[in-house]
Fold:
Amino acid sequence: MAESLAQSSPTLLGPTDPAPVGLRNILGGSPFFLICDHAGNAVPAALHDLGLNGDELGRHIGIDIGILGVSERLSDLLAAPLVFQRYSRLVVECNRRPTASDFVAAVSDGTPVPGNAGISAEERARRASEISEPYHHEIVSRLDERQGAGRPTILVSMHSFTPSLRARPSLRPWHVGLCYDADRRFTMPVLDALDREPGLNVGRNEPYGVNMAADYSIPVHGEERGQLYVEFEIRQDLIASAEGQVEWADRIARVLTAAYAAYAGGAA
Structure:
C-alpha cells in the first residue's frame, strides 16, 4: 500500500495543492504573534489522502479541530499577525523535530496511516522541505524582522486537544491547558488571568507539556531563542462550533490583554 501511495515526482506539491503557509493580519501592530501548527488537514493530491477516509482526516489525528477559527478571530480582535499551516499533521507533524518518531506517523491514536507506512528517507525529507520548513522559515523570518525593528513580541502558539484518546481512553476534564518549559515569564501572568475567568478548569502542562527533545515550535521559536511565549491547548468539543470559536477567541483576547498589562507593569 505504501508503494502505491508514494510520490515518484521530484516534488511533492502539485499545481492544485494549496500553499503550506497561511497568513492573516501579517502587518498588524499587536505585540502578540500567533502561530497555528495544525490549522488544516489538506493532503497533497499525490498522496491520495494517505489511504484514509475523510472521517479519519477530520479527527484530532489529522487536524486541531476548531483552532483555526479561534485563531483567525483572535488575530482580528488583537490586530495580531497569524501564521498557520494548512497541511494535515499526518502528512508531516510541524510541531515535531525531524528526528522525532512521529514526525511522519505510521500510526496515530490507534489508526494506521497507510500512506506513511515504510516511507523512504527521501520522501520524509521531501515532506519536510516542502511543508514544515517553509512554515517554520516564515515564523523565523517574521520574528527576526520584529526583533530587528525592536518591536515587543509575545509568541502565542494555538492548539486544541481531544477530550479522550481512542488508544488510551481517559477523562481530560480541562477546558484549557497551558504548555510550558523553563521560561514561564509570560505563562504565569496568563495563568493568573485564566484563573480569574469563571467556571474554567485550567490545566498546567495538561493534558501534556512541552517535550524539549521532540517538539519544535515552543522549544525552537520560544525557549531556544529566549522569546516570550505562551502555548494554549483548548479542548476541541468546546470550539467545534462557530459559536464556541467566537466565545473562546473573545476569552483568550481578554486573557492575553490582561496578562500583557500585568507583565508590562511588573517589568516596569
